[in-house]
Amino acid sequence: MSTPQRLELPWREPIVVARQLDGDNGLIWLDGDGSDLGRWVTLASQPQEVIHCRGLPGDTEARDPFAALKGLGPGHWSGWLSYEAAAWTEAGNPWSRDAMASLWIARHDPLLRFDLQQRQLWIEGTNPAAMQQLAARLQQTAPIPPAPPTIPLEAWHQHTSREGFADGVRRIRALIAAGDLFQANLTACCSTNWPSDASAVELFQRIRHQCPAPFAGLVATGNGEALLSSSPERFLQVDPTGRVETRPIKGTRPRHSNPDLDADMAAELVCSDKDRAENVMIVDLLRNDLGRVCIPGSIQVSQLLGLESYPAVHHLTSVVEGQLQPGLNWVDLLRACWPGGSISGAPKLRACQRLQELEPTSRGPYCGSLIRIDWNGRFDSNILIRSLIRKDRTLRAHAGCGIVADSDPDGEAEELMWKLQPLLEALA
């Protein structure tokens, strides 16, 4: 594939351009919050090629999503990989069946790129005629957006009650006390009807306005499936030289409108023995995962227990880096690390087994990744937390908490709502 060209355009906010593409098949919006981690935004629709996989090993016509990723040709690719794709890497574990595609990924050419810090916008692509056609389309008058529908808080059906979640915490604590686990990330789900007149773009705009995040994104496939994410967590990044970075998040406190109380919440998080231990445990797990495909001695923890603050929550984030072994690429890394340690537990496979027993619904894309392969082969991905999932007429929202030996069941149930409530309120 030839090197992509650039066609500069006058600056416009991403939401203005997204509204002009709204309704197109295969719409992707890789969003950011304007920070150094979230500086860039990518928008595209009407892909040249789409690959999707469904089902579990043994199903008729099921396809290994990691093998499909290995076969990708050159170009710019983006989409999602679901949590249950782990059935193809660890077939010995039980995995829930989800109706969503385990892999949906598309190649777009051309696409739009935004630099939020420099307020620059341009078209990238390898087909000059298609780039000009897109530029001409964007010169047309932007449509008046429909009033986004509201989803009342009481419209959400909780698949796990507050007490049910607290009971799950107690059961995980008992497993830890018995030596079965060290840590597990227990999740819960609620669902409602997808509003009949809803635009995925407008719903995502409300989420990104209230919950901006550096690794956010929207994927609307055009066949009744969509993903809306305000994730603050990078899973894996691999640059063209094979340099790897992962940024696990463990430890959360809510923000407060009072600056003094907000500072107290941040200090409490930084000083929490429980949250620090949980974060360090996952850092160790990820160092082990990276060690399966990285050069021995190359793995380093460049940030341990750093405080990162977002509009709704404070987090503890660590950064682990390494260098891929010669001959291996991002797919080998993804397979070695799947599913992410921060949303599974330790030991990972045992934690996944216990979580499958405790959680009443499958996760699907939630706790999977929004992935992107750039023109030059650079790979980036998030952990799909703080995410909403559409399947036909159903909209799902998930959240989870990392459980360790001294977790307080009622406190973890409260933390679950810190994470879930901003998403639900954004739509209400």
End-to-end Cα distance, whole Å, is 45 Å
The proportion of strand residues reads: 25-35%
Number of domains: 1
- What's the level 1 CATH class? Alpha Beta
CATH superfamily membership: Anthranilate synthase
Question: How many helices?
Answer: 10
Annotated CATH topology: Anthranilate synthase
Which value, in Å, is the CA radius of gyration?
21 Å
CATH architecture: 4-Layer Sandwich
Q: Helicity range of the residues?
A: 25-40%
Secondary structure: number of strands: 22
Mean pLDDT: 94
Largest sheet: 12 strands, antiparallel
User: How would you classify the helix and strand content by structural class?
Assistant: alpha+beta
Contiguous low-pLDDT stretches (5 residues minimum) are: none
| Shape category | globular
Explain the overall architecture.
The structure is a single chain. The mean pLDDT is 94. This protein has ten helices and 22 strands. The relative contact order is 0.18. The strands form two sheets. Strands 1, 2, 3, 7, 8, 9, 10, 11, 12, 18, 21 and 22 form a twelve-stranded antiparallel β-sheet that branches. Strands 4, 5, 6, 13, 14, 15, 16, 17, 19 and 20 form a ten-stranded antiparallel β-sheet that branches. A hairpin with a 5-residue loop joins strand 19 (369-373) and strand 20. It is globular, with a radius of gyration of 21 Å. By secondary structure, it is an alpha+beta fold. The chain has one domain (5-427): Anthranilate synthase (4-Layer Sandwich).
